[in-house]
Amino acid sequence: MEKDKSTDEIGFGTKNYATNSRYINNDGSVNVRRKGRKFWQNFDGYHALITMPRTKFLILVILGFLLINLLFASLYYWIGIDHFGNVQTSTPFNDFMQLFFFSAQTLTTVGYGHIFPKGNIAGALATVEAALGLMGFALATGILYARFSRPRSFLMYSRNVLISPYKTLKGLMFRITNPKQNELIEAEAQVILSMIDWESGKRVFIPLDLELRKISFLALTWTIVHPIHSESPLFGFSLEDYEKNDVEIMVFIKSINDTYEQTVHSRHSYTYKDLIMDAKFEPILPRINRKGKMELNVDEINDFQKVEK
Amino acid sequence: MEKDKSTDEIGFGTKNYATNSRYINNDGSVNVRRKGRKFWQNFDGYHALITMPRTKFLILVILGFLLINLLFASLYYWIGIDHFGNVQTSTPFNDFMQLFFFSAQTLTTVGYGHIFPKGNIAGALATVEAALGLMGFALATGILYARFSRPRSFLMYSRNVLISPYKTLKGLMFRITNPKQNELIEAEAQVILSMIDWESGKRVFIPLDLELRKISFLALTWTIVHPIHSESPLFGFSLEDYEKNDVEIMVFIKSINDTYEQTVHSRHSYTYKDLIMDAKFEPILPRINRKGKMELNVDEINDFQKVEK
Amino acid sequence: MEKDKSTDEIGFGTKNYATNSRYINNDGSVNVRRKGRKFWQNFDGYHALITMPRTKFLILVILGFLLINLLFASLYYWIGIDHFGNVQTSTPFNDFMQLFFFSAQTLTTVGYGHIFPKGNIAGALATVEAALGLMGFALATGILYARFSRPRSFLMYSRNVLISPYKTLKGLMFRITNPKQNELIEAEAQVILSMIDWESGKRVFIPLDLELRKISFLALTWTIVHPIHSESPLFGFSLEDYEKNDVEIMVFIKSINDTYEQTVHSRHSYTYKDLIMDAKFEPILPRINRKGKMELNVDEINDFQKVEK
Amino acid sequence: MEKDKSTDEIGFGTKNYATNSRYINNDGSVNVRRKGRKFWQNFDGYHALITMPRTKFLILVILGFLLINLLFASLYYWIGIDHFGNVQTSTPFNDFMQLFFFSAQTLTTVGYGHIFPKGNIAGALATVEAALGLMGFALATGILYARFSRPRSFLMYSRNVLISPYKTLKGLMFRITNPKQNELIEAEAQVILSMIDWESGKRVFIPLDLELRKISFLALTWTIVHPIHSESPLFGFSLEDYEKNDVEIMVFIKSINDTYEQTVHSRHSYTYKDLIMDAKFEPILPRINRKGKMELNVDEINDFQKVEK
């Protein structure tokens, strides 16, 4: 990508607003909600089912299972319990419950058969329910599995972004690490500065130069450094300047998870509140354990110390 | 790709025809049908099952299910109802229906067992049907799931393509946005002009220069601009020229859907009928809602206003 | 890739042999068989199951199903038919068959239940078989589905490779097309010449320059052209030279199938026997059908005519 | 990637340690263990299930199956055996076992039905178990299939790395081959030298220049060569120097498996113990078998001979 320092480069089309709202939340989610005239325009069922919280998904599956059972139990009850063999009729509630459990045994294809459909209407309904159950459970478990196996990047970002001494200059720095036991390879970083340009009254978006944009292997940690040279838009900024210009540092990391051989993306965002002036990260020294394996304490990623100006 | 302005670059091989037929339909589908001497040469079963309309697919699955059931029911009826235990024989139709439902219960592996195969022939047939049912339902639900989860790009394109003032020149512009709640990243555009060159009487295909070919993040909207500089094949064109040359503007967008971490492609095509001279898009201002989230109205993507020449 | 004209570039490591064996077969398969001291070194079960011919795969699945059934039927018979409820004992063969079908009904999880396990040994065996059946059928149908949905490129290559007039020179040309109704995008070609260099007595491998290496869209056909300029290793070759040097033209095409959004690779190889001197391809003109759709006859890809020298 | 010879390039963040621990094990696994304050920070269930050894996975699945069965059998026993139809009560142990097998038949959805739930409590429990069984088996077989079909690179590396004559210089060389019958295409190598720089007392990481970084097709073998020119960090090294500086040669190979059309990565590492001075690899000559197919003996990849200095 060319280093065209325009707004468009990160896809925030129009340029005429200068709000205080951040663009990317701290957890990496995007602070945008899309609406349109028609509901379905903005709706993507698969995406919703894959990304909704676990408990919401489970409740949805259980409710769906109960509803379909209720529907078929009602149909069975409506055509009459005498269409089913081996049922011992008792109270209406117990009759209904017997049919409800028969329905559940059909939907899950258990089919004990102590109760069974007699005649064509009951037979047809049970056939439809069994086919529907097979398809429905396959879809539900497909989504369950997709949720479980979804390629994700679990990068840890240092809590703070530091302004540290860097060679003869200063550098804006933060650290990332992979806390999981899998390996991330070919990691690539892009850092974009978003701030208000008070001359034009507009919010501007500027990609920041990095000391290193790509590493072949994220085995331990990676300190991502933007050297604040004289060309940098942050050159000479004081902490007040960061606040006054409502600075947001947006981070985009792309890498390959080598368990699934899949590219994964991670986003993060720092605001001026996360900034520490004149500090540097503590080096992280992996210990060698008894088996000769290097041990990395990922929590140390946040550790820094103040430096003399 | 090099900017070789040849026909070949977009794969429309021969150059000697100048038809009025558009190459890409407005919905992004390709206006080409491939035929050959042998039917199977052009047939791809999986592709057909994945892309056919939903209702057609459902009808096919239901028909398939009924046909296999009918086939096995007929076989069971043909070997004789006395090969099945617990059947109460009545009319031939009812006998057949009982075997039909037994077949359905076998195919879905419900297997209530109030009817069951007796003897080796019935046992063998039922075994085959059960194995077939397991395989068939797995294939059908696999395809159902693949249809549901197929990576797709649901980009919205502005209804019109505008000729707007652009810096000191004019620019050909259209806008895209992602109406869904997922995020599209690393979006990349290619725009190809197709028109009749009356000098040679041939249709030519020319990639158009873009102000920006790639953005890292399609959070809001992206206005794709071809600056009509003096090198542009559209330099000095009037609305009549666009019509006379049967201009088609073909758009190819590639991006990554970050829910599934998959690359998705989108196509669109404008003809001279979609062109508005001397107009510019209204800026789209996302509103900040009560939760501090930016709200984007994707329908505003079409809004433009006429400008003084 | 740099145009280093070395053998290594296509992975045929050592250089000291000059056999007549072709490297890539006409159907794109590689003419190499890898062996090692230990069988499992060269064995990849999943690869074998995915790529074996359809009938072989079906026979394997059926045999596997029968064998597991036989095994469990034998175990059931061995512990004794009195461990099963509701069985009507008759001849040993019929007893065995009843247990065989009970086994099949357990493995497929149909479980009619007219025969059922009694006591702990039979119960335990049936439990193991049911669990095994669920796992086994899931694996088998998973592989079946993977075979069915495997991303493949069904490119058609022109039967012949032509030496045609090309601008002021000659060009080595062949044509490709996609016979299927799906779309191939971002197609990229690499052509490698393999021939015997009689000076050194070695076989050499030389990548050939192409007029165009990449097209964005393979909608109709693509004529791939190597201009035989004075730098070309084929400059001045007569038909006899092609034969004498045992020329093989290896073709590698990479593209994206836009139904599954997946990259697919295709290989092809021409030998001097497929070469036609002084001929050019007939242009392929798609017809416009009644619905305004262009129709392409893919068989025309082979049509050429001789030209005056 | 730029050839920035910094530590960061391979993701070993801090630079102040000079341990003897190797970074990558001979089998390609990474010699790092990540820890944090909270267990779940470092835990990735899917990754663990996909990568654990086969036997461990099988034991886990069997244990899980038994435990869920035990749980439900206990619940059934606790509500009372009289909630189940057709049970012949005998000893408490046999009662429990009957319910255990009923539970197994429900969980696997076999559902013979010779025992069946009576009343609402037993019906509800069995319904929950059947639904759980369907979901659980789908997850387990999903993971089983993912383990089986996981894209992997089975590259073979030569046992030794040689210092051989190379043109007018020496070269550091090793060979790779693909022992499997599938094809690896677009193979790309990166070789990184890790050694102790005794001047600074630090471990340094230096990417090595390669004669060829990418080949289009790994049909036979690929000898990867680092020319030890005067700019090379290994220029003039004796075997003692390799040992003294604790040299580790890390190899990263990326390629595409053309059966699954998927990118696969492979890692390997050599230490000074694997180094042979003044030797060269024996050329590997594929034999032509009776069917005209080239046969490659992959074990020959290790064969070398000493050369005169």
Task: Please explain how this structure is put together.
The structure is a homotetramer of 309-residue chains. Chain A is α+β, with helices and mostly antiparallel strands and 309 residues long. Chain A has two domains: 45-149, Helix Hairpins (Orthogonal Bundle), CATH 1.10.287.70; 153-306, Immunoglobulin-like (Sandwich), CATH 2.60.40.1400. Chain A has helices spanning 45-51, 54-79, 92-107, 119-149, 239-244, and strands spanning 32-35, 84-85, 116-117, 156-157, 161-166, 169-177, 184-197, 202-207, 214-217, 221-227, 248-257, 262-271, 275-277, 279-281, 287-288, 294-297, 304-306. In chain A, the strands form five sheets. In chain A, strands 4, 5, 6, 10 and 13 form a five-stranded mixed sheet that branches. In chain A, strands 7, 8, 9, 11 and 12 form a five-stranded antiparallel sheet that branches. In chain A, strands 2-3 form a two-stranded antiparallel sheet. The longest helix of chain A is centred in the middle third of the chain and has 31 residues, at 119-149. Chain A is elongated. The two termini of chain A are 36 Å apart. Residues 1-9 of chain A have low confidence and may be disordered. Chains in contact: A-B, A-C, A-D, B-C, B-D, C-D. Strand 16 (294-297) of chain A pairs parallel with strand 1 of chain D, so a sheet runs across the interface.
